[in-house]
Amino acid sequence: MQSLQEKASEWSGVATSDAFAIDETNLFQSLGGNQPFIDLSTNFYTRVYDDEEEWFRSIFANSKKEEAIQNQYEFFIQRMGGPPLFSQRRGHPALIARHRPFPVTREAAERWLHHMQLALDTTSTIDPDSKIKMMNFFKHTAYFLVAGNEMTRQAQAVVCKHAASKPPS
Amino acid sequence: MQSLQEKASEWSGVATSDAFAIDETNLFQSLGGNQPFIDLSTNFYTRVYDDEEEWFRSIFANSKKEEAIQNQYEFFIQRMGGPPLFSQRRGHPALIARHRPFPVTREAAERWLHHMQLALDTTSTIDPDSKIKMMNFFKHTAYFLVAGNEMTRQAQAVVCKHAASKPPS
């Protein structure tokens, strides 16, 4: 059985070593602190909350845009070498579990990545080489979450089937 | 509704700021690299796989001891300031999702912490101050996973109930 990591690499087309090239340098330091990450997440969610594709926009309908922005940039800052802002406020990233309420399908991953590429393109506080590294990380992570989403739903179906086959207590 | 983080703090008795005091310094550097983490995880799983409590030992019965040790120390090294060994091999930690197959109850968390405290006590390559920081992180994380376990099982019960109430397709 393929691992989450293997599925992420195959589906995204990004090798693990490229996905985690973000760790070769400290991006938080080289980009100069919080602001580039705040810029990126603001650009990203401004696009997402205004998406013409209703099916994608509706995934975020129960979250406030400001909170979505903060959750994202705090995670990025923590993951890319900065202070652990996300964990101090919300605990471990627990990426698969926190995405559990959302339909993280391949189509949703592709739409997410489409907006993220355009958000990166318009973030002038991030240099071109860092953009490539970050986009590889995002692609791999998006499909890691698609794989995680499939894993939890399959496990759930098995549990439901098992529960349904038991006599009522 | 209490967040995962709030539950973790209340149930473990460890404030978030104490749990993430591991980030105030780079423990990987101050402890001098991989070896203290390898020592700790080896001591820990040697105890676990030999636990007199069969209910707890059986949780780990489907995993090889050597793999359990490596998974753990690679995560600890990555989380405590060292190279991202875990992600390079297995992807994001995704702590809650990866613990999903296991019954992470309060009793299991307490037994895990009992063995971890004794494993720390016998790891001479870790200084006393670092041991306190690490144990606070472990306590908080153990109950974060208990909270995550309850969250996924409750969500699952709702989905199963919903599925059972639908007419068969």
UniProtKB/TrEMBL annotation, chains A, B:
Top-level taxon: Eukaryota
Keywords: Heme, Iron, Metal-binding, Oxygen transport, Transport
Transmembrane segments: none
UniProt-listed InterPro entries: GlbO/GLB3-like, Globin-like_sf, Globin/Proto, Hemoglobin_trunc
A Pfam entry, by short name: Bac_globin
SUPFAM superfamilies named in the record: Globin-like
Single GO MF annotation: metal ion binding
Keyword Iron: yes
Similarity comment: Belongs to the truncated hemoglobin family. Group II subfamily.
PANTHER family according to UniProt: TWO-ON-TWO HEMOGLOBIN-3 (PTHR47366)
UniProt name for this protein: Hemoglobin
